[in-house]
Every structure is written in C-alpha cells, then in structure tokens.
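Working notes for the structural subgroup meeting. M.R. asked for a predicted model of this chain before we commit to crystallization trials. I am recording the input and output together here so anyone reviewing the notebook later can reproduce the run.

Input as submitted:
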Amino acid sequence: MKNLLKLLSLTGFALLMTGCSSYDYYQVESNFKMSAASDRIPATITKGQGFEANFPRIATIAVKAPDFCVSESQSQRTGTARAETNVMQTTCGVEMAQIESSLAKAGFGVISWKVLQNEMTVSTSHLDAAKKLKADAMFQINSLERGVTQAGQDARWDRRFYITSGGSKVPTAVDSYMANLLDTYAKQNEQAMIAGIEVLSASINASVTLVENGRAIWFYEWNNVQSQEDADQIVANTYVYCIDGYCQPYTPQEYAAYNDQLVQGTSDAVSIGAKAADRRRAVHDKLMKQVVEDMVGRFTL
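Returned structure, recorded in token form:
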C-alpha cells in the first residue's frame, strides 16, 4: 500500500512537471528577392562632341560586327529547341540581324554587317568600306556577351515568422532575441539553397562613328542583369522548436493518410520540361533583346 502511494505521488509529480514545460514550434518562411527591373543599374551612355549637330544628318547606318563571334543557330540561342542539324547558319548572323532589325524599325537605312564585311575585301578599312556603301555612320558592336554571377548579389531574403501546430501555421510576432535566433537558423538553410543558383546577365558595348571624318560621337554600355521577373521563385522553410527557452532546428515528418480502399489501376501525368540549359538560353535571349532594344532606343532619342 505504501509503495503504491509512493508510485502515485511520483507519477503525479512527473505529470505536474510536464505540464509546466513550455513547447513552441516555429516556422521561418524565407523568400529570395532579386532586384526589380526598375532597380537595375542603367546603361552608360556618352555623347561625344558634335553628336547633337550630326545626328539629324544620319539617315543610313552601316553595322559592324565584332572581330569574333560564337556560331549558334536561332533555336540554340533562344533555347526554344535543340538544333539537330544546321542546314544554314551564319556566324554572328542571329544577333546582328536583331540589331539591324531594331535600327530599321527606328527608321534608319541599314547596310548589313555582312555586306560591309564583304566590301572590306577591296577596301583598306571599315570606314572606307562604309563610305563606298554611302553610309552616314557606322554602328560598331565591340562586344556582346552572356554572363553568369552567383545568386546573392543585389538580392535579399524576406522572412516571415509563424507558430506551427497540428499542420497549420499562424503568423506571429517575436521579440528581438527570438528574431535573431530564428534568423541565425534560417540563414544556414538559405545559404544551402542558393549555393548552386546562378543569376544571368547580358552585356553589350557599342559605339557610333561618323563615316565622313571617323569621329566617334556616341558610346553605349550596359550589363543587363536578370531580375525577379525572369527568375524562378525560391522559398526556404526553416523549422525550429523550443522547450523552456532552449531552441534548435528540426525536420518535420509528414505522414500520408492510409486509405484501405481497393483500386483497379493508377495513372500519372507525364510532363517533360525544358532542360536547364535551354531555360538558361531562353532567359539570356530575353536579356539580350532588352539590351539591343534599349541601345537602339537610347540612340534615337
């Protein structure tokens, strides 16, 4: 009897101690935010001496390609498909055609870069060739590049705190101590998520030279960096539980509900997405088009 009373007393004490413990389960939802399009660094434009006076007289433009070009087809460059067999292809052709098309839309007479290049076989310089073709100015593309940088530059993580219970989450406010603690655990998870994520860019450097005297009157340079609109959404979820002020991260377990109903068959939808390399090319192509359109638009202002 005495032992039974002792056992009941110990059990009651344990239940009392358990009831006094404080359990809290937190979830930190982190959203990766890159710079918006309006926050990107704008193009650098320099107008040389005589630009304002000579621009109204420019009616025909000869386009000069860089000295070296990567050989790619339209589908390869845009990422819309994989080029199985290239029937016809011109080195520099796709990019230069885009520049020439933009200049033509702006109202200029355009002498193709290929025509200018062919004229060079009998001319001493590109300016001499442009003069023979009766061009007023030469649009020289010095470089046109695709770039890649690591995620985390010009970006931020937006975090929201939640109390979780029974599979649901409720937004919560915490004091500065707990906020710093949750931030510390969340940062570890965030860094692991963006370790292999890249931010794409497209850059161009170009200049415009008067054919009659060889004077450079306009310069353009821009590194167009991928913005949030062009990127996949990145969300990191960090889970932390605290017992009597002691906190540490944990991985929640998900249990699938058991259903004992009999079925006669199953089906799965098949979705074949684009390869990572193709998606990458598609974003690069969009950035490149933005660069070309901005360059020609700024020149005609």
